[in-house]
Specification:
Length: 289
Amino acid sequence: MAGAYDNRDGVIWMDGTFVPWREAKVHVLTHALHYASSVFEGERAYNGKIFKSREHSERLLKSCDYIDIPRPYTVDELEAAKKEALAKSGLSDAYVRPVVWRGSGEDMGVASARNPVKTAIAVWEWGAYYGDAKMQGAKLDISAWKRPSPETIPCFAKASGLYMICTMSKHAAEAKGCSDALMMDYRGYVAEATGANVFFVKDGAVHTPKPDCFLNGITRQTVIDLLKEKNIEVIERHIEPSEMEGFEQCWLTGTAAEVTPVGKIGDFTFEVGALTRDIAETYEKLVRS
């Protein structure tokens, strides 16, 4: 599937009904468009099965709770809808995007309690998120923006408004010829990329930032479990930016990114080493098992 995302064949699930892809629209005065009252998930299906689907549905509803959106469906109802949407797509390997938002209603100020909550699920074909970088090692810029304090945002929600600085950071990175940007947190510690978590290797151990002000990704958790099964030490801690000089390998994890090696972050370079390749291969086998 190619072309603009609003001009494709197929159908999109919208509140229990399948709507032709080009007709899946909302009004310009939809609350989410103006105030970012929206949460979403990114999921991948492999061989006709959505990987860790239920965990994603549970997180979607938790995100609703975080930003004060009433839960529109149960986990079981979301699971059934995603399964049906995937089947309707005719794809076995696909990206799945559930999204929940405050729609158009009586409220058009900051408050939106009287507006209906809407839900949609779209499925499309999406290859490697970083293209050739998945094999060669991605090149990352260092963002000028920082992940905020948990006292300022609902940082554990996968909410659309929290991605504004991510979009800005990635645009700046792409303008420099990079695939993505690494973000620090409000204290100056290494945090994450714009849509993926980060891991480093040093002396056979794996170091990864403690997710105390950003999303603890489902892929991140999966990769940590895989590393522990291989008896590889995983250290979750605060990482100073200067420490990147001493790390030997680096990779990113995320539903879209899967496991992507990193070759460079700013002036710091990393080898696409044996452990990075091994964990990428192990993850690939797991999601297709």
